[in-house]
Design a protein that fits this description.
The protein is an alpha+beta fold. The chain is built from three helices and six strands; from the N terminus they run αββββααββ. The strands form two sheets. It has a four-stranded antiparallel sheet, with helices on one face. A two-stranded antiparallel sheet has the order 1-4. The longest helix has 16 residues, at 98-113. The protein starts with 21 loop residues before the first helix and ends in a 6-residue tail after the last strand. The relative contact order is 0.18.
């Protein structure tokens, strides 16, 4: 019978268990960052799928898992994808309802890049024999000059 070699631990690597890891720090600091739209004046759709979304139920504390789909038409600014990934990961320890998650992501996305239009869908994994999706849309008001 062969024995598996001992697995490295944080302590054996000289890392304190209470030390904040660099990924945790980046997630905690995560905010939506934007850059100039390279094709201002051209309408095009940006589709983003985030299949590993997690948060916690505000009532039970159980984890909730979802796929978040974002489709938006940029105006002046576009959201940077790594920043979006870190922002989405910041929800993993938050106690928040499915309805509030999708609406909060919409509010933050609008504040960051003010798209011409945006649709966000939260497709939550079944739990307790209940399957739920939440969809929300926003369209920038058309202004006449």
């Amino acid at each position: 019978m062969t024995q598996s070699p001992p697995q490295p631990t944080a302590a054996s690597a000289g890392i304190s268990e209470s030390e904040v890891k660099y990924g945790e720090r980046l997630i905690a600091e995560g905010q939506l960052i934007t850059f100039p739209n390279p094709r201002i004046g051209r309408r095009y759709d940006v589709h983003i799928t985030l299949p590993e979304f997690t948060c916690k139920c505000p009532f039970s504390g159980y984890p909730d898992f979802a796929t978040i789909d974002i489709t938006y038409v940029p105006d002046q600014r576009v959201v940077e994808l790594k920043a979006l990934k870190l922002y989405i990961n910041s929800y993993r320890d938050r106690y928040i309802s499915h309805e509030e998650v999708v609406n909060q992501i919409l509010d933050d996305f609008i504040a960051a890049c003010d798209p011409l239009s945006i649709k966000i869908k939260g497709n939550f994994n079944p739990r307790g024999n209940v399957y739920m999706t939440v969809e929300v849309e926003h369209h920038k008001p058309v202004t006449s000059d």
